[in-house]
Design brief:
Strand 7 and strand 8 (about 215-220) form a beta hairpin. This protein has helices spanning about 5-10, 40, 75-90, 105-115, 125, 130-135, 190-205, and strands at about 30, 35-40, 45-50, 75, 95-100, 150-160, 205-210, 215-220, 235. The radius of gyration is 24 Å and the shape is globular. The chain has one domain: Muramoyl-pentapeptide Carboxypeptidase, domain 2 (2-Layer Sandwich). The protein is α/β, with parallel strands linked by helices. The strands form 3 sheets. It has a 5-stranded mixed sheet, covered by helices on one side. Strands 1-9 form a two-stranded parallel ribbon. It has a two-stranded antiparallel ribbon with strand order 2-4.
Length: about 240
């Protein structure tokens, strides 16, 4: 009879049926400032395509502060305003598509650093009639922004049945005179669509920046705090 010692020793060398799984690496969670929230928690199902997370923007690459998140973040009162606008549009078979919301202040520094480079690869599509310096001189981009306070959104209207954007006569972030909310060179349909967005957002409590038909911010923002934390889809939300 084999000794218990011999049997135990043999068991040590039996092949393992399944390897022990490696410990999972869990990303560190950071708290979200109390006054902010994920927009989709206030407006479930809202369409979001954050342009600065990818390459489809006037810089042509992901922007600092946007590389870890795809969910729109807003101050809670701004989120409620977007909710109100969305509900009004839904009664007409329409809805909102969000292109930008909270913007970390570091993104503005990234924009400015880009403006000092010789890279003009996106000029034909995004700023065909001005220089990079002209982007700032014409106040399309600034050194501060309501976005960094969490009270501003870039957005358009979509048809909920088809998912297609309404014809606004120009794309997001076209830094040009033709992007003014009221512009003589538009068709009647394009101008009507821009005014539909403006009037809907106004009834919800948000004001348009007249040079950019897509840009809206709270009409009465109250006390504002500038934020710089990067976007993250898994921030700890404080009640």
């Amino acid at each position: 009879m084999k000794s218990l010692f011999t049997i135990a020793a043999a068991l040590l060398f039996l092949p393992q049926c399944s390897p022990i799984p490696a410990p999972q690496v869990v990303a560190e969670q950071r708290p979200m400032p109390t006054e902010l929230c994920y927009l989709d928690t206030v407006v479930p199902g809202i369409k979001v395509d954050l342009k600065y997370c990818g390459n489809d923007n006037f810089v042509g690459r992901p922007i600092d502060g946007y590389t870890e998140g795809t969910r729109a973040i807003l101050r809670k009162d701004a989120a409620l305003a977007v909710q109100k606008a969305q509900q009004e549009l839904e009664s007409k078979g329409l809805g909102l598509l969000i292109w930008d919301a909270y913007r970390p202040h570091r993104a503005l520094a990234d924009f400015y650093a880009w403006s000092k480079t010789a890279d003009d690869s996106t000029r034909a599509e995004f700023y065909p009639n001005i220089t990079k310096r002209g982007i700032y001189e014409n106040r399309y981009i600034g050194l501060t922004s309501e976005h960094s306070w969490g009270i501003a959104v870039d957005l358009t209207i979509i048809d909920l049945k088809t998912g297609k954007e309404l014809d606004m006569g120009g794309r997001h972030d076209l830094l040009d005179a033709s992007s003014a909310t009221v512009y003589a060179g538009l068709t009647k349909e394009q101008q009507a669509n821009r005014l539909l967005l403006r009037d809907t957002m106004a009834r919800a409590g948000m004001r348009n920046y007249s040079k950019e038909w897509w840009h809206y911010f709270l009409r009465e923002p109250g006390l504002c705090t500038r934020h710089n934390f990067p976007l993250d889809d898994h921030l700890i939300v404080t009640p």
